TrEMBL record:
InterPro entries: Methyltransf_11 (IPR013216), SAM-dependent_MTases_sf (IPR029063)
Naturally occurring in which organism (per UniProt): Dicrurus megarhynchus
UniProt-recorded Gene Ontology molecular function terms: S-adenosylmethionine-dependent methyltransferase activity
The name this protein goes by in its record: MET27 protein
PANTHER family linked to this entry: METHYLTRANSFERASE, METHYLTRANSFERASE-LIKE PROTEIN 27
The gene coding this protein: Mettl27
Highest taxon of the lineage: Eukaryota
Sections of the chain in a coiled coil: none
Length: 244
């Protein structure tokens, strides 16, 4: 990567952090990628803090805004939960019944140590179905995992399967140059499901400062950051409020 020059160019990130982030986004084969995540788990939270990774906060805030009270009883599935960053944000907003799945055993170990999840399961999304019955969850989140070389957009029907009718899905993706082709495919799949009447879109929020870029090429308009999007969908049929 570029070094030196104005504050933007070295991206102000330690080289080791840059390398670890780049490694998991390089389209490596699944077993290799899960091995990288296992090895990264112990340092993951300090690395994403250095990245100023805002997706968990932004996603939880958006979901909370859409979600009708009360929250404490609602059952949520945090897909690709990693070390539990999203759970922490959801918990702060009053959600208490959190289940998580991730493809990395190392990440799940970290998530377990937070004490925020009532259930954690190993599941490689895209390669196997979610370990949950149909129409089980009031909301499903996939924060940070929908991207090039990560979770394919073909998982959307599986996310819908485990969501209750009227339930919410909160998804995020990045808008940096190397993810634009993936993002276009994801949006086509989102729109196709909306046209078929599977869900309705409540929100697509573009966020300019999503996280720090690891290379100058990935940075949005030379800001040193990459941008991203939060999507909120509601599964149909949406229950009608009772008259009276």
């Amino acid at each position: 990567g570029a070094r030196g020059g104005p504050a933007g160019t070295g991206m102000g990130l330690p080289a080791a952090v840059r390398d670890r982030v780049a490694a998991v986004h390089r389209g490596s084969a699944l077993p290799e990628r899960l091995r990288l995540y296992d090895g990264w788990a112990a340092r993951y939270e300090q690395d994403v803090a250095a990245l100023e990774y805002r997706a968990p906060h932004l996603a939880a805030a958006s979901l909370s805004f859409a979600f009708p009270a009360p929250r404490a009883e609602a059952r949520l599935l945090d897909v690709a939960c990693g070390t539990g960053l999203v759970a922490r944000e959801l918990h702060r907003r009053g959600f208490r019944c959190l289940h998580g799945v991730d493809g990395s055993a190392g990440m799940l170990e970290q998530a377990r140590s937070t004490g925020l999840y009532q259930e954690l399961r190993l599941c490689v999304l895209g390669a196997e179905p979610l370990p949950a019955p149909a129409e089980h969850y009031d909301a499903v989140t996939v924060v940070g995992a929908l991207g090039e070389g990560q979770v394919p957009s073909t998982v959307l029907p599986e996310l819908l399967r485990v969501t209750k009718p009227g339930g919410f899905l909160c998804l995020t993706t990045r808008s940096n140059p190397s993810n634009l082709r993936y993002k276009a495919g994801l949006e086509a799949a989102l729109e196709q499901l909306e046209r078929s009447g599977a869900w309705q879109k409540l929100l697509a929020q573009e966020v300019e400062y999503w996280e720090r870029a690891t290379t100058e090429e990935e940075s949005t308009h030379g800001t040193g950051y990459i941008s991203g999007v939060v999507y909120i969908y509601q599964k149909c049929p949406v229950p009608h409020l009772e008259e009276g």
